[in-house]
Amino acid sequence: MSSRSGFFRPVGRSRGEGEASWISVSDLMAGLMMVFLCIAVAMMRSVMIEREKIRTIAMSYKENQLAIYETLQREFAADLPRWGATIDRDTLTVAFNNSDAMFDTGEATLSASYQVVFEEFFPRYMNVLAPFKASIESVRIEGHTSSGWGQSSDRNTTYFNNLRLSQDRARSVLRYVYTLAEVTTHHAWMMRNVAAVGYSSSRPIYNGDGSENIEQSKRVAFRVITNSETKIHSILEESF
Q1: Which residue positions does the secretion signal occupy (predicted)?
Q2: Which of 231, 218, 225, 230 is nearest to 166 (CA)?
Q3: How far apart are CA 13 and CA 152, in angstroms?
C-alpha cells in the first residue's frame, strides 16, 4: 500500500501544479484582454473627438461661407448686371464675364472702361472681406479663356498660348487694383494673400446643350479660398 500511495502522490502534485499554471495563464490572458479593451476604447474616444473637431470646422466653414456670400450679395447685387458679373455661392467667386470689353483680342492691357469698373469694385470688395480676413487663406484673381486661339487647330499650342494670356491678364488686373489709393491700407495683407493665376481654357463655361459658352469662358474672376481645409489638415496631422 505504501508503494501505491507513493506512486499516486507525484501524480497529484503534478496535476495541482498544472492547474495552478493554467489559472495563471488565464489570469494573464484576461489581463491582456482588459489592456487591449482599454486601448481600443481610448482610440475610439480619440477618433470621436477628432471627428467632432472636423464636424465643428465643417459647420463653421458652411456658416462662414454663407456669411461671406451674403455680404458680397448685399454689397454688389445692384451693380452686377451693368458690370456683366456674377457671384457663385459655392466657390465665393465674383466673375466678370465680359472679357472682350476688358481686353483687346489676344492682349492683356486692361481697357479704360474696366479700369473704371475695378476702381469701383475692388476697394469695396476688400472692405467686404476685411471682417473675414482671419478665416481667408487666399484671394485668387483668376484669368480664364475660351478653348480657341485664332485659326490654330493645334490643341497644345492653343492651350499654352491661352495659358500665357490668362496669366498675363490676371497679373494685369492685380497690378491695377493694387495701385488704387483706396486699398493702400490692405497692401500688406494683399502681398501675403492675393495671387494672380491663369487657368487657360481648363475651366470653360458650358451652355445648357453642352456646347462651350465662348463669351462667359473668357472671364476674370475674384475667388475667396477659406482656411477650413488647412485647419482640417492640421487636425489630421496632430492625430497621427
Answers
A1: none
A2: 218
A3: 99
CA distances from 9 to 4, 13, 15, 20, 120 (A): 9, 6, 10, 17, 106
Q: Which sign, positive or negative, has the C-alpha torsion 69, 222, 194, 130? A: negative
Q: What is the pLDDT of residues 71-88, one digit of tens each?
A: 999 999 999 999 999 999
From CA 77, how far away is CA 86, in angstroms rounded? 9
Query: Residue 209 pLDDT more than 70?
Result: yes
Q: Where are the domains of the chain?
A: 2-54, 67-235
Q: What's the first-to-final CA gap in the chain, in angstroms?
A: 71
Contact 158, 152 (CB under 8 A): yes
The correct answer on CATH 3.20.19.10 for the domain covering 67-235 is: no
Neighbouring C-beta atoms of residue 139, cutoff 10 Å: 20
